[in-house]
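Dear H.,

Thanks for agreeing to be a second pair of eyes. The structure we're designing against is below in token form, covering all 166 positions.
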């Protein structure tokens, strides 16, 4: 019971005081109703949300596989395994929970999805957790406020042979 109350207080505080002082961010909250894959969720009253600044492998073979193969030498078998692990991680930590979405300068991607940093009820940043565990790579084609921190987390995951980097 205590952790539920704490989670609600944390969500309320995050709405009032954004975690990152490096930019003035608008934040909203909502319940995750569906997990499409490791970097895309559905949030009630908001719609489809793409986790900002990260890229997880697709659950099925895709054109994006070539990037991982050529840039990092990651096999398709590893990509499929990590895609499933990333999706399961997001389901386990976010589905049916209230999350806080914080926005950066780009708010909508070319596919109409909301771009956001997704904070879990305990205050941890889901985007960064996926990178730290090696379940996501930094999305290099875009600029965003936390890119440097994400690149550092990815380098550590790579150095420690986690997930994609094993």
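And this is the sequence the design step returned. I haven't edited it by hand at all.
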């Amino acid at each position: 019971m205590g952790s539920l109350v704490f989670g609600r207080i944390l969500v309320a505080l995050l709405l009032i005081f954004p975690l990152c002082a490096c930019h003035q961010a608008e934040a909203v909250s909502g319940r995750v109703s569906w997990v499409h894959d490791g970097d895309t969720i559905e949030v009630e009253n908001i719609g489809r949300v793409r986790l900002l600044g990260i890229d997880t492998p697709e659950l099925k073979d895709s054109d994006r596989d070539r990037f991982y193969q050529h840039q990092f030498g990651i096999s398709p078998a590893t990509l499929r395994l990590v895609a499933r692990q990333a999706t399961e991680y997001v389901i386990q930590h976010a589905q049916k929970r209230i999350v806080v979405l914080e926005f950066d300068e780009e708010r909508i991607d070319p596919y109409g999805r909301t771009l956001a940093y997704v904070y879990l009820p305990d205050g941890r940043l889901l985007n960064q957790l996926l990178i730290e565990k090696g379940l996501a790579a930094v999305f290099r084609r875009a600029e965003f406020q936390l890119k440097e921190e994400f690149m550092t987390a990815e380098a550590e995951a790579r150095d420690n042979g986690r997930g994609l980097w094993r």
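Two observations from my side: The longest strand covers residues 27-37. The longest helix spans residues 76-94.

Warmly,
E.
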